[in-house]
């Protein structure tokens, strides 16, 4: 029996043109975010726990409760200093949320990272016993010279993280309409598929619940509405790939009832708990 929980590790505020891009070309899009004076509402920062017979699996780790401490965000980075606000109380960090629900963070077998942006990787220190599953491309991203500039806060990764990384490159064949996938569990019920665009190495997790799927989408879209509209976010690395990935996810939802989950979507938890499927025209 598989069960999925949606956890919220505090909130983040981003610029409105970050949440929803007005332009397609990246330099113009990013400039539009940097010069935007309007903030989004407080958006949730989601992550997920999957109870599976082969062990407990996390998808993403949410934000750190230290994210607003002086010096946590790089002082020289205009985007992190001026274009994002975060609010994560100690009791809202992922380790505390798991304990409050009766789960031991030290017992988590695997942590799948949809991607390595700060508000998804901030809770990594809570999981010293876990194996971290990253796409090969995202792993290269955190090792690149410009990693911090690109939103990967590598200075906060604990040593054990690097020792416990497993990379995947989707060699387990096609899955539904995705040409490539990796089976994460021996029973094949949990699969990873590449969804580049927001970052080049972004991946989503698909949980097979027998008569429906749960698609855990990280930042592959910022909300179900944006997914349905094919909208892109203001900071995505590759707008074309982002749109191709959301088109694939929409086609996936057409094939079989699917509950979609996104990290910054107000309604993720409600859709999961009330079993509300994503309706694609
Ligand atoms: Zn992100």
TrEMBL record:
It comes from the Bacteria. GO terms for molecular function: hydrolase activity; metal ion binding. InterPro entries: MBL_superfamily_lactonases, Metallo-B-lactamas, RibonucZ/Hydroxyglut_hydro. The keyword Hydrolase applies. Residues 44-264 form the Metallo-beta-lactamase domain. Keywords: Hydrolase, Metal-binding, Zinc. Its cofactor is Zn(2+). Transmembrane segments: none annotated. The keyword NADP does not apply. Belongs to the metallo-beta-lactamase superfamily. This is N-acyl homoserine lactonase family protein. It comes from Pelistega ratti.
């Amino acid at each position: 029996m598989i069960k999925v929980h949606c956890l919220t590790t505090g909130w983040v505020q981003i610029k409105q043109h970050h949440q929803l891009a007005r332009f397609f070309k990246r330099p113009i899009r990013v400039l539009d975010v940097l010069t935007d004076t309007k903030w989004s509402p407080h958006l949730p920062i989601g992550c997920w726990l999957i109870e599976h017979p082969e062990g407990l699996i996390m998808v993403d780790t949410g934000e750190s409760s230290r994210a607003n401490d002086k010096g946590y965000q790089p002082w020289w980075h205009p985007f992190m200093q001026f274009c994002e606000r975060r609010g994560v109380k100690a009791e809202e960090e992922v380790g505390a949320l798991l304990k409050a629900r009766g789960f031991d963070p030290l017992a988590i077998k695997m942590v799948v990272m949809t991607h390595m942006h700060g508000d998804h990787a901030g809770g990594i220190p809570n999981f010293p016993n876990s194996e971290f599953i990253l796409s090969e491309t995202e792993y290269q991203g955190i090792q690149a010279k410009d990693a911090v500039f690109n939103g990967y806060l590598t200075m906060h990764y604990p040593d054990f993280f690097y020792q416990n990384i497993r990379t995947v490159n989707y060699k387990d064949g096609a899955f539904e309409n995705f040409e490539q996938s990796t089976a994460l569990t021996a029973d094949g019920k949990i699969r990873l598929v590449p969804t580049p665009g927001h970052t080049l190495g972004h991946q989503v997790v698909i949980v097979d619940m027998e008569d429906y799927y749960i698609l855990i989408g990280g930042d592959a879209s910022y909300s179900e509405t944006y997914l349905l509209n094919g909208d892109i976010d203001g900071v995505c690395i590759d707008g074309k790939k982002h749109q191709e990935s959301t088109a694939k996810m929409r086609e996936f939802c057409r094939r079989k009832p699917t509950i979609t989950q996104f990290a910054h979507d107000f309604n993720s938890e409600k859709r999961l708990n009330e079993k509300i499927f994503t309706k694609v025209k």
